[in-house]
Structure formats: structure tokens, C-alpha cells
Amino acid sequence: MVDLAVVDLSRLQFALTALYHFLFVPLTLGLSFMLVIMESIYVMTRRPIWRTITRFWGTIFGINFVLGVATGLTMEFQFGMNWSYYSHYVGDIFGAPLAIEGLMAFFMEATFVGLMFFGWDKLKPHAHLFVTFLVALGTNLSALWILVANGWMQNPVGAAFNPDTMRMEVTDFMAVIFNPVAQAKFVHTVSAGYVCAAVVVLGISAFYLLKGKHRGFAKRSMTVAAAFGLLSSLSVVVLGDESGYALTDNQKMKLAALEAMWHTEEAPAGLTLIGFPSLEDRKTHAEIKIPYVLGLIATRSVDRPVEGILSLVAVAEDRIERGVVAYDALERIKANPQDMEARGQFETVRNDLGYGLLLKRYVEDPRLATPEQIKEAAWFTVPNVPVMFWAFRFMAGIGVLMIGLFGTAFVLCTLRKHDTKWFLMLAVAAIPLPWIAIEAGWILAEVGRQPWAVEGVLPTFLGASSLTVAQLWTTIVCFTLLYGVLAVVEVGLILRTIKKGPFAEQEAREAEASTEGEPAVV
Amino acid sequence: MELLLDYTTLRLIWWGLLGVLLIGFALTDGFDMGVGALLPFVAKTDEERRMVINTIGATWEGNQVWFIVGGAAIFAAWPQVYAVSFSGFYLAMFLVLSALILRPVSFKYRSKRPEARWRSMWDWGLFVGSFVPALVFGVAVGNVLMGAPFRLTSDLRSFYEGSLLGLFTPFTLICGLLSVSMLVLHGAAWLSVKGEEGVVLKRARAIGTVAAVASLVLFAIGGAMVAFGDMGFRITGVVDTAGASNPLRTAVEAAPGAWMDNYGRYPWMIIAPVLGFAGAAIGLLGMWRKSAALAFGGSSASAVGIISTVGLSMFPFILPSSINAQSSLTVWNASSSHLTLFIMLIVVVVFLPFVLLYTAWVYKVLWGRSTEAELKTNPDLY
């Protein structure tokens, strides 16, 4: 039987390390492209201020980038370390995008990032710009392949279970790459990263303007951030990944859970603006609804209903019952690989095997499950509704605020009113917001996928390695300490860089030159 | 769908590619690790240390990707190997991981503040981030040669029955020290290519000489223990080289001395250990004669030879089990599906040449020795 304490700790560790990793990645994604924009202006105008601007934000990029790389290693190791049955079960499909990410994207990003920092004097300006562009391209391609992998967990297309190898195997690789869930996720996630970087550049520039320091530098940086941020914040919301929510049972469940929609909504469904979902009585209290909106977003129509949690649980119950049949056929194939009758039967119900495996939480052999256990397992397919409901509202609420922030910034920059004090204070205060939205979005996507590691294929609790509680506590405590120290150092160094300002290097050189020059003057 | 290459051939190619990626890692990131491990001992003042760090400062990041891609390629092409080894060696992997997390931040953060204590802290971070992985990788390879204590259930779920300390036996420690000396030699050779001639290089050559001798001795002792010790496995039944990837369908037994079988069957394989010895000897000569080309060529050849020796001796085994021989993972029973191996091969054939080309270009742009004089004029350096 699976040790649920090990499963819970493994999930805790994965969540902690992934949330931490994802503090650095969005800034890397966005800032890399902002560097390309800033350096392009330098190459076109050849004005030294734009070189200073690029190099200053490049320094911030570098401090942030290494921690993203360092914590990314953990993510790659962890599938094998903590989720070894998952790795065996879906490695045939899931491993490929990770390997392609390394070969196609990460090699490019990591090879050129050194040249980006060290090649200023060794390359002509346009060649250096091209190197910066390749870093940005590599970073963003990296995100594409990671989200192809993640998208497959949400919507496992192009693969089938092979009873001879006891795992999922690829049947259509193009379907894995062009998975609509992955494509939507990619656009949504990188746009969120662009917003994050724009907020950071906007906020730090606003801080300088409030202090009356580095004004020429800050105004220019702010203008770039305003334009880039406005486009990206529109793209995050408009190209949100809700379009994928009609695809699979789990995606439908995710939509129902984040809306806390217990009963199926007749077309066109209304959107719950706010309310208090309760797990005990399976109701949402004091809800305020906006008619039509959900139907439009989720089904892109006015005539299709949006399914509620209760009816999706009924669907899950049927699939669990067929899953038990699949499990039985699989056991007979294992006992005798030549049993053609069992293989024939397995073919008819193979897509429900994962639902049968859900019962392993309650009973060693799913064939011995009682009707009550099947019912319990069916309800287990509902993710944590209040968490989903609130995570979505934080994420979407901040998303809308961001459009307002950058809309205002864009207008002010266009009118050359960079010094509007109330707005500058607002821009500084807004710095933490994109991170809250991004982490809430991650929680939404991954808590919403539960109880599945791979939707309908492999329950999360079966994916864990056969480790001990002591081993897990050791690594969780050490990770927390190590990551905690590094976070403090990183924030300290970024603040130090901001305090020194963009001209520190130049000032140091001038100071040196003037002391060397002094004797001649005297 | 009929694929261009049959399953057996693809499995062989991917076994070879696994070797290529591991060797790529040892040759590139290997000298970064060697330099990192040498840092506190060959360079004493801040200027000396900065000169040493800047021999690898701009390129270590790309080099490390060989390791990341190696890990991801094992995941994609040999998922069961990835699953069993990473979860089985759990705490050892965690140790490597923590050390590897320290490394990038040490490079980047060291130069951000001038205080001596701050810098010395990150110098030791670089040392730990280089020495610990080098040692643990060697110990891990030693354990792979001996077989790991895991068994697979009929669902192919793996259970591991060992502990962290159990990984450290006399033989595996010899493997760990061999790995350290091999990479320290390689790092010393890199410094003689890229570092400034002077007291630092003198110290590096002295340590490099010791490392070359240690490599020769440890490789010989390790080899003798493999040949005459209680080590080795053999497939007893018929093998379907194109069969389904299910380890439980292969009959395997422990057979002391069996790791030498391949050299009788395929005498050409002797090239690998010969290269391991000859490379280290040439590296030693390079240290004595102060020839950067001999030193680096020799240390590279030695790493290629030593790693190939392990792979060829064990073929077709990848990860045997010491407690349940039946569960052993081989080239013929632990790979991805035929289609995945084929697609991934196309990806490698398309992208690896690009990677090699632009990596070469970056090295060319950054060509030239790292000097203490340059530290004063170039504000971008670490």
C-alpha cells in the first residue's frame, strides 16, 4: 500500500521548490526581452545612456537568472528522486520535451548568457545585441517546452497505455507538441512573465524618480516598461488559458471548482464574481453573479451549458467502474501475456484505467472496492474548491489591475508626465503584485489538476517514490534552509544594486581617473 | 508505422549517446569542477582567485547544460534507469543537488561585494559545488558497477533497500577518488591553457601532477577490483533485443568477474582502458613539460577512456540489481518506446551540431588567457 505520509511530504516539497523556482523564472522571461528592446534602441541611436540602461537592468537580470538556473536543477532532479513511479509511468512521453528543452533552448540560453555579460568589449554592438536576443529566445523556448510537458499532464494527448511495459507510451508526438492546453498555457505564462518584468522596471524607475535620482535613466526605462507592460498585461488576460477548460473531464472539473459551481449551469452560464464556497454543504454562500459571462468565456458560445461539480462526479463514478474492469483485464495480462481475451477486453476500457487506480487509495486491489469506496473515490476527483475559487480571484483581479496600472503609465509617459507623484508611489507599491498573481496562477493550475499527476491516467499518490518520512523531512528542512539563505542574499544584492544606481561603474572610473590626474593639476 | 531504424539499433545508438552526453559533461563541465576544486589551493590572493575564476567565468554555465541534458536524456530515453537511480540514491542525489545549487550563485555573487569574508565564503561555495559532485558521481558509478540494492514489483514500481552510508564502500570510494583526480587533472590542464603563467600555474601543475599519478594508480586498483572482486552480472536466458521494455522478462544472475567478459568477446574494447591510462600519462608529461596542449589533450583522453571503460565493461547492463538480479536494467529492457527513441534521435541529430557550432564560436570570441592585468581594466569580469 502507498504510504500517504510520504506522498503528502513529497507533494509539499515539490510545491515549495516549484513555487520558489517560479519566483525567479517570470522575471527572467520578461527582463530578457526588455533587454533586447533597450539594447536595440542603443544599437539604433548609439546614445550611451541606452547602453547604461541595458547594462543596469542586465545586472539585475544576472542576479536573478542564476537563482532561476540553480533552482531549476532541483526541478529536473526531483521527478526521478521523489516521483520515480511517475517517471517510469510517463517518462516515454514526459521526458522528451524536457530533453528537447535542454538541447534546443537551455544550451542556447546558457551558452550565450556568459557572452552577453562578458562580451561587451569583444563584440560589435549589433553582434552583442544578437547575443542578447539569443538569450531571450532561449529563455522563452525553454518555457515553451516545459509547458508542453506540463500541458501534457493536464491533457494527455497522443499516448496510450502499454500493458507489456506497464507504462504510457507515445502514439502521436505531434499531438503532444501541438496540445492546445500547452499552447494556451505557454502564451499565458510568458505574458505573465513579461508583466512581472515590466512591473519591476516600472517600480524601480518610479523609486528613482520619487528620490529625484537618475532622472534621465528612470524616465526612459519607465517608458519602455509602460509600453511593454501594457501589451503584455492585455495579452495575459485576453489570451488566458481558459479556452482549454472544455477539453477533458478534469479541465471541466477545474473550471467548475474555480467557479465553485456545484450544479450544471444552463446556457449561457453566469460568472460568479464573489461568494463563499463551503466544502461541508457543497454550496456557495452569498454569491454575486454576472449573467452570460462564464458561458461566453468557457464555451465561446451562448447556447452550450457549463457542467457543474455534481454532474462531473457522476461521470467520474462511471469511469471508476469501467476502470475496475480495465484493472482486472490488466492483471490477467500480467499473469499471462498471451491471454488474448484479456487484451481484447482491456482495449475497450483502457482509457479508464487511471480512474480504476484511484481506488488504490482505499484498497490494495481495486477489484475488491465497495460501492461506498467507489463513491468516495468519485468525490476525490474534486479539487479543493475554496483554494481554487480564491486563487482564481486573486490572479484574475491582479490581472485586471495590471491593465489599469500600465494603461495609466502609458498615458502619463505619452503626455511626458513622468513625475506624477501619486502614480509613482502606486508603481512602487505594485512591485509584489505580479508575483502574487503568478503564484496564485500556479496553484490554480496544479491544485486544480488534483487528484491527478496526469489527468485521468495516473493519480498523484501513486506517482511518488518509495521513500521514507525521515528522508523527506531531511531534504525538506535542508531545502528550506538553503533556499531561505539564498533568497535573503539575492534580495540583498538586488537592493544593493538599486542603491548603487546605474552610474556606479562610471562614477568609480571617473573617481579613479581624477585621483590619477590630480598631481598633474597641482 | 514503419520507422527508418529498428528498435535494436536505436537502443544501441541511445546507449552510445548516453555515453556521448556523459563524456561531453566530463570534458566541459569537468574542467570547471576541477578548477573549482583547485581554487582555494592554487590561488591565495583575491587577484589570483579572480584570475582563476575568470578562466571559466563566461563558459561554465553553458558547460553545465551537458549535465542537465544528460539527465533529461536519461529521463527521455531510459526512464526506468532515471526513476530507479535518482530515487534509490536519494540522499546522495540531494547532496549533489545542494552542491550544484551553490555553484552558480557562488560564481555570480562573489564579485558583488568587496569584503574579504564575503568572497572567501563564496570561494568555499565554489569548492564544495565542484568537489562534492565530482566525488559523489564517482561513488555512484562505483555503486552501479557493484549493483544497486533495488527490486521491481510486477507493476514495475521500484523499492530500494540501502542507505546513504551503504553507498560508501572501499571500492566505491576508490571510484569516487578516481573521479576527483581525473577532474582535478583536467582542471589543472585547463588552467595551463587559459590561466596566466606564474605562481598560480606553478601550484596548479604541482597538484595536477599528483592528480595524474593518482588517476593512474586508482584506475589500476579499481580495474583489479572489478576483475578479481565479487562483481559482475550475466544474462542467462535468451534475449530479445527488440522486445518490450520490461526488465522482469530477462533472466539475470550475479557472476563475479563477468565485467571482464566483453574484452574476451570484443577484443577491440581494450582501447578504452588503454586510453584511460595513456591519457593520464600524457597529462602527466604535459604537467612536467609545461605544455598546455599535452596536458589538456591527455586529461581529455583519460576522461574519455575511463568513462568508456565503465560503459563497455558493463554492456549490455546499465544498472544491475544486487538484491534481485531479475530486476536489473539493461540496454534491451529499460529503454523508451521505439517511436520515442526515434523522435529523440532526430532531435539530437538536428540540434547537437548547432550546439557544438555555437559553443565553439563562443569559445573563439572569448579566446585568450585570463590575466590579473585584465581584471583592472574590464569591469564585466567576476
Question: Can you offer a commentary on this structure?
Answer:
Chain B: Keywords: Cell membrane, Electron transport, Heme, Iron, Membrane, Metal-binding, Transmembrane, Transmembrane helix, Transport. Chain B: It holds the Pfam family Cyt_bd_oxida_II. Chain B: It is found in: Cell membrane. The complex is a heterodimer of chains A (522) and B (382). Chain A is mostly helical and 522 residues long. Chain A has a domain at 4-248 and 382-500. Chain A has helices spanning 4-45, 48-82, 84-118, 125-154, 173-177, 180-211, 215-238, 249-258, 293-299, 309-335, 340-349, 353-357, 371-380, 385-414, 421-429, 433-449, 460-463, 469-500, 504-521; strands at 159-162, 167-170, 271-278, 283-290, 452-454, 458-459. Chain A has a two-stranded antiparallel ribbon. In chain A, strands 3-4 form a two-stranded antiparallel ribbon. Chain A has a two-stranded antiparallel ribbon with strand order 5-6. In chain A, β5 and β6 (458-459) form a beta hairpin. In chain A, α10 (309-335) packs antiparallel against α11 (340-349). Chain A is globular, with a radius of gyration of 26 Å. Chain A starts with a helix and ends with a helix. Mean pLDDT of chain A is 90; it is low at 517-522. Chain B has 382 residues and is mostly helical. Chain B has a single domain, classed as Formate dehydrogenase/DMSO reductase domain (Formate dehydrogenase/DMSO reductase fold), CATH 1.20.1630.10. Chain B contains 13 helices and six strands. In chain B, strands 1-2 form a two-stranded antiparallel sheet. Chain B has a two-stranded antiparallel sheet with strand order 3-4. In chain B, a hairpin with a 5-residue loop joins β1 and β2. Chain B is globular, with a radius of gyration of 21 Å. In chain B, 56% of the residues are buried. The model of chain B has no long low-confidence stretch (mean pLDDT 94). Chains A and B meet through α2, α3, β2 and α18 of A and α3, α4, α5, β2 and α12 of B.
